[in-house]
Amino acid sequence: MNHNYDVLIAGGGAAGFFTAVNLAEAAPHLKIAIFERGKQVLSKVKVSGGGRCNVTHAEFDPRSLATHYPRGEKELLGPFHSFMTGDTMAWFEERGVPLKIEEDGRIFPESDSSQTIINCFTTAASRLGVEVLLGCGLREIAHADGRWHVLTTSGEFACHSLVIATGSSTKVWDLLTSKGHSIVPPVPSLFTFNVDDERITDLPGVSRDVAVQVLGTDRKVILDSEGPLLITHWGFSGPAILKLSAWGARLLEPTGYQFEIRINWLGHITPEEALSALLATKGVHPRQALHTYSQWELPKRLWQQMVRYSGIDATVTWADVSKSQLQELAQQLTKSRFSVHGKSTFKEEFVTAGGIALEEVNFKTFESKLFENLYFAGEVLNVDAITGGFNFQNAWTGGFLAARSIAAKI
Questions:
Q1: Model pTM?
Q2: pLDDT digits (tens, 9 = 90+) for 13-49
Q3: Mean pLDDT of 257-272
Q4: How far apart are the C-alpha atoms of 88 and 21, rounded to whole Å?
Q5: Lower CB density within 10 Å: C or N end of the chain?
Q6: Following DSSP, what letter does each residue of 131-199 receive, concatenated?
């Protein structure tokens, strides 16, 4: 069975649909098909953002936006000048999907439902005549007679231009390797830290803005981050931890996710500054029990654990606490060390660092430098970002520029 198309898009996810819809709008005469190995399309869009779909992030300067990509920062700077956050918002709103910016900068559909985004894509694809072929996995590709010949689990197809938008698919990466592309081996990104420590056992749900560092075997700082940290039943999560997992994806993988972190619960206050403040409180409130009145607006349960693990009894008043005990408390507050033993996936966000080597891609068009009319969009590339809508923005930008390039050619 041989089906001829102008453009075939492998992968029915965010990048694949965005490419298809933009291409069909720019060049209505083209025969376009998306083929997807699964039984449904846009499954990752459906679960993203807790089912609300974090479409992008309110960062409107290309250079600032690019800094949120541990892999891809340099390469995406140019593309972001052509299509980024504001363009994404306009794109969806022009197609009947109003968006809203939340306090932390994340952007969601006003409906708070990822189904709104899915409906936008599937309706547009249907209206524009884009075929969607399900249960159709990529097996082999070959270029001959000026066309791409694509073997799938549902038969053989041919096309002028082929777009690979299959995400973190090891099988597709292996296929591309066999054709001569280089693949940066995948490692997990965006994960939480598993920590079993009595100091936090009773504190799930407690959140605090912190400064946190990853320590090397020589106790030197190899990574650092700051922002909200969330204590969970299994350890630590929240933006401060997820940033470390993204930027440290390649550093942490060889450790088997066994390493040490140091947390400053007071942000950038030093042990000396903390001790000075504690001594000042001792002079002002001698009759109060340390245990009762949290300092620095720390969550009360967290403060009480820090006091307890500094060797200070719950009944001790400020008048009776010794300077050495306060020194220990200052250390606990500003330099708490915890051992990490493993990682957990952050919600449903399966993000991988790794993919097609970036030097083999023309980022003006997202076309392969090795093969003409072969394009890449989304996480199939060695591009990944911290959480907050940035990975989707990479998909939108790559899909838009690939579509624009193809439309100009055929």
A1: 0.91
A2: 999 999 999 999 999 999 999 999 999 999 999 999 8
A3: 98
A4: 13
A5: N
A6: EEE-S--EEEEEEETTEEEEEETTEEEEEEEEEE---S-HHHHHHHHHHT--EEEEEEESEEEE---TT
